[in-house]
Design a protein that fits this description.
10 strands, binds zinc ion, alpha+beta, 3 helices, two-stranded antiparallel sheet, Cytidine Deaminase, domain 2, single chain
């Protein structure tokens, strides 16, 4: 998917649940110094969605992830997650950063997060073994949606 389509899709799916939060997995491919986002999951009816929380509970997030993994010859995988802040800015809460931190520790890889705010979208890179996320952006490269590893301060 191209970045505009990914962001449009996240906006459409967020609007559908407004004023409740929406969310799901980001699926794609790990590159040398970048992550390609190719699919997103959710939200599904079995998730827990309120105005201030979104918890993936529906088994379909995992089913879609496994199905894409198999379809791609076992390379398309979990690269992060997305959710909306229907009533606020796209800045990660401490819970969000904590969730990405746990996710990247579990996968032993850097992960990415996308937050759809009321008016704009935030894209974050969460380095492996880090407690902090770095704000970045999506780029279009070779027909794909790429999030490049940001240059981190020493
Ligand atoms: Zn959040």
């Amino acid at each position: 998917m191209i970045p505009k389509l990914i962001l449009n899709e996240i906006k459409i799916r967020s609007d559908r649940l407004h004023p409740k939060e929406a969310g799901g997995f980001l699926l794609g491919f790990f590159k040398d110094d970048a992550i390609e986002v190719s699919h997103l999951t959710g939200p599904f009816t079995g998730d827990l969605a309120t105005r201030t929380r979104f918890i993936r509970k529906d088994p379909r997030h995992k089913l879609v992830a496994v199905s894409e993994w198999l379809k791609s010859g076992r390379i398309c995988t979990l690269v992060g997650d997305w959710h909306s802040h229907p009533n606020g800015t796209p800045v990660p809460s401490s819970i969000d950063t904590n969730t990405w931190s746990k996710m990247s520790k579990k996968q032993n890889r850097s992960m990415v997060g996308i937050i759809q705010g009321q008016d704009d979208t935030g894209v974050y890179w969460h380095p492996v073994n880090s407690e902090q996320s770095v704000s970045t952006n999506l780029v279009y490269e070779d027909g794909t949606c790429i999030i490049r590893e940001p240059t981190l301060p020493p």
